[in-house]
Amino acid sequence: MLLALPVYITSVPALVRKSAATGRLKDGFTHQKSLPKGVFMSIQSDKSNSDARSQEVDDQSRSQEFDPATSAAQSPTIVSAPDTRTPASLGDLAASLLAARREVDEIFEHEGFAASPAWDIILQAFQAQSREAPVTVTEACRKAPSGPTTALRWIGALEEMQLLERVGDQNDGGMTVIKLTPKGQPKSEQALQVYLKAA
């Protein structure tokens, strides 16, 4: 008949050290010699079963490790759309853009307008009004593809052409901003439509 042992006996750790002085296991557990033979064999059997289960889990984990070759084979292949642009089609685009620039010159009644800083300043003013974010004279001159002095002269020329006006921004401490006039707004929209069709 087996002795009635405390529950913790069945969970004795596998790796324990024996104290040479007391003949007892570390943490106060009794050495195997003090246990009945049947109980000790039962503990050893439980340990072997636990080791077998751990080995089985490890084997399954290794079998599920990432395999680049397998992953690549299972991943869907993304096919990019072929680039249909050819020198001929790009040449057609260049011709369309050149034609659009000439048409913009006609809209603003000024030869070379589309290739000048004036067109860039018009674009800045149009963008600012469409986004309701006024652009100051200083900022417009700084962003223009010319020196600030040249850009300032162009702003004056656009005012004379009644395409642009300078007004005080009440929301920014009286800073001077540029705005398209009732004449400049529709001309700008017409010119942008030309470029949109050319592209």
TrEMBL record:
Residue stretches making up the HTH marR-type domain: 141-184
Keyword Transcription regulation: no
UniProt cross-references to InterPro entries, sorted A to Z: HTH_MarR-typ, WH-like_DNA-bd_sf, WH_DNA-bd_sf
Gene Ontology molecular-function annotations: DNA binding
Gene3D superfamilies: Winged helix-like DNA-binding domain superfamily/Winged helix DNA-binding domain (1.10.10.10)
DNA-binding found in the keyword field: yes
Pfam families: HTH_27
Annotated segments matching region Disordered: 43-86
Key words of the record: DNA-binding
Bias (Basic and acidic residues): 48-65
Protein name in the entry: Winged helix DNA-binding protein
Organism of this sequence: Erythrobacter fulvus
